[in-house]
Amino acid sequence: MKKTIYTIGRDPSSDICLDDGGNLISRYHAVLKVKKNGTYVIIDQSLNGTYINGVRIAQGKEVPITRKDTVMFANVLELDWSLVPVSDKWRKPVLISVSVAMLLAVAVCAIVFIPSWISGASGDDRIPSGSSAIFPQDMDSGSIDNQDDGDRLSLRKLRERKRAEEKRQRELEEARLDSIRNAETVAPVQTETAVPEEIQSEIAENDSTVSVAVPDADTGAMQEPEPQDTVSNLNVNAIY
Hints:
Blueprint: E1 5-9, E2 16-17, E3 30-34, E4 40-44, E5 50-52, E6 55-56, E7 62-65, E8 71-73, E9 77-78, H1 91-125, H2 141-184, H3 197-207, E10 214-215, E11 222-223, H4 236-239
Parallel strand pairs: 1-2
Antiparallel strand pairs: 1-3, 3-4, 4-7, 5-6, 5-8, 8-9, 10-11
C-alpha cells in the first residue's frame, strides 16, 4: 500500500530528507499529504517557512499543490518531485470515463450500421429462382473460384442486357416522335377556282331574261321562241 503522508525535514528519519548544511531547514519542516482523489496538499511546520511558486504559505494550514508547482523550503532548497511517487488514484475515474465513452460509441455504431449491413447481406444472400443452392460443405477452392467467375459473368450479362434495353427504349421513343411529326404534316388542299364576280353577274342577267311567245305567220298559233345559248348554259369550268 502506498504512503499517503510524507514527512519533509532535516531529520534523517524524514521520508524526504533535506540537508542545507546549516540550520535554515527545520528538522520537521513540512508534511506532504496525498488525498484519496490523488491530489496533493502541503502543511508548513517550520520556522523559516515554505514557499510555493515564490509565495510563502501560512504555517499549519493545508495548501493544495500540484506536481507542476515549485516548492521551496526556507527558500533555499527545492522539493524534488521525483522523490514523491505518482498517485494513480486519478486513473481509475479517467479509465471509467474512457470506457463508458467507448461503449457508447460502439453502441451508436451498432445501431446505425448493423441494420443496413444485415439488410444488404440478406439481399445478397437470396438465391435466384431457377438456380441451385450451393452450400459450404459442397464447395472446394476450385468451385469457389468458378462461382466467383460465374458471378462476374452474370453481372456483365446483366449490364449488357440493361444497355440493350435502354437502346431499344430510345429507338422506340424516336420512332414515336417521328410518327407524331409525320401526322402533324398536312398535305395541301386543292380548292376549286373561284368564278370571277363579272362572270357571275353576267350569268345572273342572262338567267333572268323573259321568253315571250309570238304567233306563227302561217298558222297563227303561238310559238315559244327558240332558246338561245347563254352564258348560263356554258360550262364555266371550260372558260378556264
